[in-house]
């Protein structure tokens, strides 16, 4: 069996990947600093995230998980290679175009819920569309609100909601504009395990029932087990992937990083 199926994907017919990839990186490198402070955070990473799939990105601390997500979401520039959302390569975009693409095609969920404290839950959910001057699709919004179980909390401000409820608002906000892809960076990092499980269940359902594409960075093998696929990073490179992960199988794989000094 090919030990690096991700890397050899590029030999498959281009038409197949073009049709199914919501986002992809090709030979993506990211270097921070110069001279003594130079750090290669990503080293020629090639990966694609298939439409309608839930992918978790895992790896030891400092392996490049957040950098990969930030480069792919256009929040950080790349040093070499390319990052593409749908069929748009981010490197070719001017600042304004990039802002528009992020607003229209990407949903974000962060560890710290990033809600505006003076707005109600509903106002937070529709804020990106309000800024863009777009009218929400009410039927879709109702479905999203019902799926995250917030119907009776829409008038509440973030301070009147629990952490788990605030993160549900953030998930609903990410979904509201039907983005091509949602990037979630440690979405359960600030939540107790029960609220975390609710958020993960919700993200998984948004993939299964709403056809959403989700990419999530996590340290937690249990969180990763909600995904369809786990991509493992070490030292800025993709070193492995796993389909149909369980918490145990992910934990076993992570233990091998520790045993082998962070490389596979
Ligand atoms: N803005 C920056 N300037 C300099 N170095 C950076 C910057 N951002 C990240 N790095 C370095 O790049 C490497 C990868 O960092 P990154 O945050 O992507 O790792 P990570 O896998 O997300 O780590 P963690 O799990 O600890 O959050 C690290 O060595 C980090 O110190």
Order of helices and strands: HHEEEHEEHEHHHEHEHEEH
- What is the distance, rounded to the nearest whole angstrom, between the alpha carbons of the first and last residues? 17 Å
Spatially, the strands of the biggest sheet line up as 6-7-8-3-9-10
Morphology: globular
Overall description:
This protein is an alpha/beta fold. The chain has a single domain, classed as P-loop containing nucleotide triphosphate hydrolases (Rossmann fold, 3-Layer(aba) Sandwich), CATH 3.40.50. Helix content is 38%, strand content 24%. The protein is built from ten helices and ten strands. It has helices spanning 5-8, 14-20, 65-72, 95-105, 121-132, 138-148, 163-176, 193-208, 221-224, 247-259; strands at residues 21-32, 39-50, 54-58, 80-85, 88-89, 106-109, 181-185, 214-217, 229-234, 237-243. The strands form two sheets. A six-stranded mixed β-sheet has the order 6-7-8-3-9-10, sandwiched between helices. The longest helix has 16 residues, at 193-208. The protein is globular, with a radius of gyration of 18 Å. The protein starts with a helix and ends in a 5-residue tail after the last helix. The site of adenosine-5'-triphosphate has 12 residues, from strand 2 and helix 3. Keywords: ATP-binding, Nucleotide-binding, Transport. It comes from Streptacidiphilus cavernicola.
